[in-house]
Sequence to fold (598 residues):
Amino acid sequence: MNKIKKENYTIGLLQLAFSADIKDNTKKTLAWVEKAAKKGAKVICLPELYRSQYFCQKEDSSLFDLAEAVDGPSVTAFQKVAKKLKVSIIVPIFEKRAPGLYHNSNVIIDADGSVLGVYRKMHIPDDPAFYEKYYFTPGDLGFKTFKTKYGKIGTLICWDQWYPEGARLTALKGAEVLFYPTAIGWHPSEKERYGKAQQDSWITIQRSHAIANGVYVASANRIGFEQTVKEQEGIIFWGSSFICDPQGVFIAQASEDKEEILLAEIDLTHIETIRRNWPFLRDRRIDAYEGITKRFLDE
Amino acid sequence: MNKIKKENYTIGLLQLAFSADIKDNTKKTLAWVEKAAKKGAKVICLPELYRSQYFCQKEDSSLFDLAEAVDGPSVTAFQKVAKKLKVSIIVPIFEKRAPGLYHNSNVIIDADGSVLGVYRKMHIPDDPAFYEKYYFTPGDLGFKTFKTKYGKIGTLICWDQWYPEGARLTALKGAEVLFYPTAIGWHPSEKERYGKAQQDSWITIQRSHAIANGVYVASANRIGFEQTVKEQEGIIFWGSSFICDPQGVFIAQASEDKEEILLAEIDLTHIETIRRNWPFLRDRRIDAYEGITKRFLDE
Fold:
């Protein structure tokens, strides 16, 4: 286990658009990692499934060809850059674990280029044009933290962001920041009527994880319109990546439609201060929460 | 068990100021219940510990005299009004359970005037000028719902609002609305610097319970400046009571400093629609949440 330097550190989120050209997506993202590192980011997070367009808009078995092993070419490329720049990188991949067994995963690379570990998306959505249950087996590694060179981080993925349980368990494992690589957007036909409320719910629920747990939350979404099925209306990814502090206060917020780097300092003293003033962890009723492991409490 | 009419119903929150005159507080609150009922409210919720000023600003054993039994004079008075007006009322009391044993409780009165049940505040805070751990034994009844004549409601109290676990467990028991009688305010010396962020965190965490669980959330706070200890600066209660829908969208919002009634319709079809579109309950990983019953997951 590597020792964590107990100093503040800067995190960087990449908010990017992705094309149908897989090689180009990786090349471009590697370049953005370099930019973020130059700006001082020490822990850098990419958007969910950064390597391709959001392919879950249809169920097509040939698309499993997009998957890669944890030690596949994408991760290897980011390992090199991590080592060169001395940064930790959260690389979200479509993970091929075995023939016919796939996950939606984060590979956490440390600043020496080694793979620190893997988080596999625990909560898998399934919605029109977000057919993830077809592609991704639910994670079997539980909720996790990773001791990077710079700090102890937790990572989750997209749909996980709607579950207070995932945030809580990751925070209870000592995470200073919860990273949420994300691919969320609007159905174009719904945007005008429901768009604002949907986006606001998404921001609110994630800020609430920061508040409830006294941790930083950093959510990296993609931007751009992607239509991978001609007969369907496609998805407008809503960007709006953000970082908030342990009281839920915005530190950095991105646009809805521009490629950007968001930076923020993880201030360990601020975590301590907020938790002293809002001592929620002190008063949890752990004797009364066992029902959380039930599907529903029918009476 | 009484049968619930599966129809929409209107709820009413009372946002009030309270004086040092205990009799007057009850009399006045009874009058506001009548007003709310006239406006169509069928389930009416009072602010936390409505009967007195917020006495927890100091630790003083004589203040236990303020406590009343569940079948004490306050509840009896509200039972009469409930029966007369055919409304259900959530009456938050300082409960005297036995000599030396006190709780911060909600008594839920049904529309026929009967006492449906009691909820005892599960999470007890303790902060300068909010010395609740001195007065209130943590609840031993767990998280609860109540089948009123009009609908199935859940009630929690104030500090509970910071805990996603309490909201989740109450929602899993079938609550359509989570009511949070509350007494929260600013230390005057902190208001300018921290006030906005504190209030915003309070609103955000409660809206997140609506979003995560697909339920209405209704939070009733008091208003006014109360200084029960001369040598201390007192508390400015921040009002801002609100009701939001199952997607966290505000339906009704009160001022910071006026006595008001907030009304909203609980639309059962809307709950169904939101939960179909945001099927979070479907995808919970109940096989992976057991750590929630631990204090911390030290590694």
Q: What stands out?
A: The two ends of chain A are 47 Å apart (CA to CA). Chain A touches chain B through 55 residues (CB under 8 Å). The first strand of chain A starts at residue 9 and ends at 15. Helices of chain A lie at 22-38, 73-85, 132-135, 164-172, 188-213, 268-277.
